[in-house]
Amino acid sequence: MTTRAVPMADVRDMYMAHTVFRREFGLMPELVRGVAEGDTARSEVVGAHLDLLCRILHSHHEGEDAIVWPRLQERGGREAAEIVPTMEGHHRAIEAILRRLGTLAPAWRATARGGAQVAEACEDLLVVLVEHMAMEEKEILPLAEKYITAAEWKGLGEHGVNSFSKRELALAFGLVMYEGDPEVVGQVLLEMPFPVRLLMPHIAPRAFAAHARRVHGTAVPPRAGRM
C-alpha cells in the first residue's frame, strides 16, 4: 500500500476522546461512593451517567476492533506485530470489567445499595484504561497516521454516531467539547451533516453543562489535566 497516495488519518480526535475517558472515569469512583445508602434519586443520576460512559467506551473500542487493529496488522508489519495483540488484550480486559459493571451497576442504580462493589469495579477499570490509553497514544496513533487512511479513520466516528440517540450524541459531543481543542472540534464538525454542523456547537455545550450540574454539582467539573 502506498500510504502517501491518499490523505492519511488525523488522529487528534482520539486524544480528545481519551481526555473524556480520563476525566469522567477518573471522577467516577468517588461519585459512586458519594451516593448515600438508599438515596435512589442520586443513584439514578450517577448510574445513568456511568451507563452512558460505559456504552461510549464500548462503542469506541468496538470501532477500533473493527477498523484499526485489522488494518494495522495487515499493513504495519513488525511495527504492529507486537503492539496490536497487546491492545486487543487490553480491550478484552476492559470488556470483562464492563460486563462486571453491567451486572453490578443496575441493581445499585435502582436501590442505592452495593455501591462499594461498583466503585471498586470503576477503579479496576480506570487502572487498565489509563494504561491502555497511554500505550495507544505512544505506540498506536503514530502507526495509524502511517497506515490508516483518513476515510477509514472517519469510520470510527461514523460507528459512534450510529450507536446513540440524537440526544445522547449531543451530550457525548458536549463531553468532548468541554476540554477539546477548538480546531480539532471544528474538523470533526466538518464531517457531519450540515444541520448537525450548524446546531451542535450550540446544543452540545448546553447539554453537557446541564448534565454536569446534575452529576458533578457544577457545570465546570475538574478537568483531566488538573486531576
Provide a compact summary of the structure.
With 227 residues, this protein is an all-alpha fold. The chain is built from nine helices and no strands.
Task: Give the helix tally.
Answer: 9
CATH topology: Four Helix Bundle (Hemerythrin (Met), subunit A)
What is the typical, i.e. mean, pLDDT?
95
Indicate the CATH class.
Mainly Alpha
pLDDT below 50 for ≥5 consecutive residues: which ranges? none
Query: What is the first-to-last residue Cα distance?
Result: 42 Å
From the coordinates shown, what is the CATH architecture? Up-down Bundle
Count of individual domains: 1
Query: How many strand elements?
Result: 0
What is the molecular shape? globular
Question: Could you state the order of secondary-structure elements as H and E?
Answer: HHHHHHHHH
| Helix content range | over 70%
Gyration radius (Cα, Å) is 18 Å
Instruction: Please outline the major beta sheet.
Output: none
- The portion of residues forming beta strands comes to under 5%
Given helix and strand content, the structural type is mainly alpha
Word description of this protein:
By secondary structure, the chain is mainly alpha-helical. The protein has one domain: Up-down Bundle (Four Helix Bundle (Hemerythrin (Met), subunit A)). It has nine helices and no strands. It has helices at residues 12-33, 40-75, 77-81, 83-111, 115-147, 150-161, 166-177, 182-190, 194-216. The longest helix has 36 residues, at 40-75. The radius of gyration is 18 Å and the shape is globular. It starts with 11 loop residues before the first helix and ends in an 11-residue tail after the last helix.
